[in-house]
UniProtKB/TrEMBL annotation:
<dbReference type="GO" id="GO:0005524">
    <property type="term" value="F:ATP binding"/>
</dbReference>
<dbReference type="Pfam" id="PF00005">
    <property type="entry name" value="ABC_tran"/>
</dbReference>
<feature type="domain" description="ABC transporter">
    <location>
        <begin position="2"/>
        <end position="245"/>
    </location>
</feature>
<dbReference type="InterPro" id="IPR050086">
    <property type="entry name" value="MetN_ABC_transporter-like"/>
</dbReference>
<dbReference type="InterPro" id="IPR012693">
    <property type="entry name" value="ABC_transpr_PhnC"/>
</dbReference>
<keyword id="KW-0813">Transport</keyword>
<dbReference type="GO" id="GO:0015416">
    <property type="term" value="F:ABC-type phosphonate transporter activity"/>
</dbReference>
<dbReference type="InterPro" id="IPR017871">
    <property type="entry name" value="ABC_transporter-like_CS"/>
</dbReference>
<keyword id="KW-1003">Cell membrane</keyword>
<dbReference type="InterPro" id="IPR003593">
    <property type="entry name" value="AAA+_ATPase"/>
</dbReference>
<keyword id="KW-0547">Nucleotide-binding</keyword>
<dbReference type="InterPro" id="IPR003439">
    <property type="entry name" value="ABC_transporter-like_ATP-bd"/>
</dbReference>
<keyword id="KW-1278">Translocase</keyword>
<dbReference type="InterPro" id="IPR027417">
    <property type="entry name" value="P-loop_NTPase"/>
</dbReference>
<dbReference type="GO" id="GO:0016887">
    <property type="term" value="F:ATP hydrolysis activity"/>
</dbReference>
<keyword id="KW-0472">Membrane</keyword>
<protein>
    <submittedName>
        <fullName>Phosphonate ABC transporter ATP-binding protein</fullName>
    </submittedName>
</protein>
Length: 273
């Protein structure tokens, strides 16, 4: 169970995340939506301590995450694997090696320096790649893969960390609709089959609605909606995306997993809710 209480992060005088209190039970799939600048990335980054909160508490089970230092902090960062919009692979290294890099936090510095991975680790990496349907790319340089394949490599690398949570920051924002669907399906399967909590920032409402049992809407650093997608009223959508939501339809649907032609406009989304 992850518990945030009154979490705030300021940059200068501006509260990028403002007094957020939420509880995420183990195994939930949560979509965080909101306009660019709403504070989604800052919130996610505070969970694994890429950024420290200015104030507030982040607790996971009995552990106060904001106080972790040294090895305990590294263990926590291993427990919550991050997926980024830009994949963050090492393009010149082959896919298998990129996936094995997910094991680094499990190993001693000395073992890491020798650069050798065990047979078991290699088998684990291959099975992660098989699970994501890209085992045939194992020996290719990661940089030669399509965006959708690269994001699946990043998910395989995350699985190698044997995480308790997967934090994904707009994982499909750089992908075409077909690849976006494959990547979201993969995250959803992992959530369902392994019971790993997934918290993912998403630009688009319809993706969150389709995959996430719980949607958190942010605006100007605050949580303005929290609940199942079916509770999103047109008023809630306006709170999240602003009064001019109608004019933002391209923004909201641009990374839709659906075919462009069949993507409903914000207007019809609002009528559908
Ligand atoms: N390192 C930083 N320094 C200063 N301001 C930042 C920094 N990171 C984010 N911000 C500001 O915090 C706000 C929220 O940003 P962010 O969390 O990236 O939003 P989102 O991911 O929803 O687009 C924005 O106004 C952004 O400019
Ligand atoms: Mg962001």
């Amino acid at each position: 169970m992850l518990k945030l209480e009154n979490v705030t992060r300021r940059f200068g005088g501006y509260a990028a995340v403002n007094n957020v209190t939420i509880t995420v039970p183990k195994g939930q799939m949560v979509g965080v939506i909101g306009r660019s600048g709403a504070g989604k990335s800052t919130l996610l980054r505070m969970l694994n301590r890429l950024i420290d909160p200015s104030s507030g508490s982040v607790r996971f089970d009995q552990t106060e995450i904001t106080e972790l230092r040294g090895a305990a902090l590294r263990n926590w960062q291993r427990d919550c694997a991050m997926i980024f919009q830009q994949f963050n692979l090492v393009p010149r290294l082959n896919v298998l090696t990129n996936v094995l890099l997910g094991r680094l936090n499990y190993r001693s510095t000395l073992l890491n320096l020798t650069g050798s991975f065990s047979k078991e680790e290699r088998a684990m990496a291959i099975s992660a790649l098989e699970r994501l349907g890209i085992a045939q790319t194992a020996l290719q340089s990661a940089g030669t893969l399509s965006g959708g394949q690269q994001q699946r490599v990043a998910i395989a690398r995350a699985l190698m960390q044997q995480p308790k949570m997967i934090l994904a920051d707009e994982p499909i924002a750089s992908l075409d609709p077909l690849n976006a669907k494959v990547v979201m399906d993969s995250l959803h399967n992992i959530n369902q089959e392994e019971g790993i909590t997934v918290i993912t920032n998403l630009h688009t409402l319809d993706t969150a609605r389709h995959y996430c049992e719980r949607v958190i809407g942010m605006a100007a650093g605050e949580v303005v909606f929290d609940g199942p997608a079916e509770n999103l009223t047109s008023e809630a959508v306006r709170m999240i995306y602003g009064a001019a939501a109608e004019e933002l339809s391209e923004d909201i649907t641009s990374t839709s997993i659906k075919d462009k032609a069949s993507t409903p406009s914000v207007g019809s989304l609002q009528h559908a809710v």
